[in-house]
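Table 4 source record.
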Amino acid sequence: MGQPVRDYLLTLCVTAAVTYLLTGPVRKFAIAVGAMPAIRARDVHREPTPRLGGIAMFGGLCAGLIVADHLHNLKSVFELSNEPRALLSGAALIWLIGVLDDKFELDALIKLGAQMIAAAVMVIQGLTILWLPIPGVGTVALTQWQGTLLTVALVVVTINAVNFVDGLDGLAAGMVCIASAAFFLYAYRLWFGNMIEAAAPATLFTAILMGMCLGFLPHNMHPARIFMGDSGSMLIGLVLAAAAISVTGQVDPDTMRIFEGSERGATHAMLPVFIPLLLPLTIIAIPAADLILAIVRRTWNGQSPFAADRGHLHHRLLEIGHSHSRAVLIMYFWSALIAFGAVGYSVHSASMWIVFVIVAASAVGLVLLLMPRFTPRAPHWANRFVPPRYRHRATEQASSPSYDEKPATVGSGAQQGPAGAQMGEEGPERAPVAVGVSGVNGATAIGARSRFPERRSIDSSR
């Protein structure tokens, strides 16, 4: 039991290390080729930031699959199943389209078609949904066309849900990492807890997905030095969807019946992960909710569902007064609550204490959501060890040097003093930097509500 865990941990660490080490050179490459679009009206960041972070994430995916193929306890996944090759084929296609979009801004319909083709490539190689366990009915076998259409729909929905939530530094990578961690625990329990070897590919996919996100997050946390772009968001969305399809398409509910005692018990135990239409709601509920609300909002306003706006959930958190980091942490909290709550309920559905824990955690989350102005302060003795935003103002002002002259404004050509460089959220607002300006480091900033601009109309032609 311990050896497979070490193999998964090794695969995760190699994936994370390769992704982390590749991100720096990829950032320089993105700047060199000009993959730094100008600031748009819906963007939160204030300076042009390079994209193409998905190149590093795809490198981590390939490294994780190569390492797993040479490990004794994981090589059977490649020998007994064609799903890893199916995943790599679909991921390569969607990644290539994402790279082109990060550089040339492809049309939304072209990307939608590429997502469907990538899903079809995986279906052709055997990564498809074969049956659905439905409570009260049992196992429903699907025809080839039904399974194909359902697989394509799940891939498209999951990819776009992750892509829609990719609006704040570290948000999409962190939320997908949380979802994949919860999914890994469920798939690992199916494989080693119930000895269902068909769940092995999904367990491997989620372990590699965690490594991809963890390796990219240090470069993408606020202030982000690089964005994953569509090449990254569509890639991790496809890997997450592939893990769900692998479990749904390969694990036979009749096998689960042996461990659950009846077909009804097996169907109920597998419900949180096996119904693909509910998977985005249980594993990535926040991105899916944001996707549905965005489509309804844009259609209600007479716009295209693919039109850009500033009405996403993370935009609204910023507008009510939450800082950038706090908004991201709130989204992390709700994602973890829903994902691990669903997995915990699937394991011990008869235990009421799980429901009580979820309700209590939801109450804590609501309190945090309604306290956007609360900022914790560290003790005086810890001021040297915490970020400036958590220090006591009186101590920080007494220890910092004073300057008689006003700090130089952006664009004046003067050198700004240390005090001006450390003003943080209370400092003067910086004007957006145009694309191509030397010295752009990709940092982003968002301050208090008074600094957040009023909601602006979006030109659909942009």
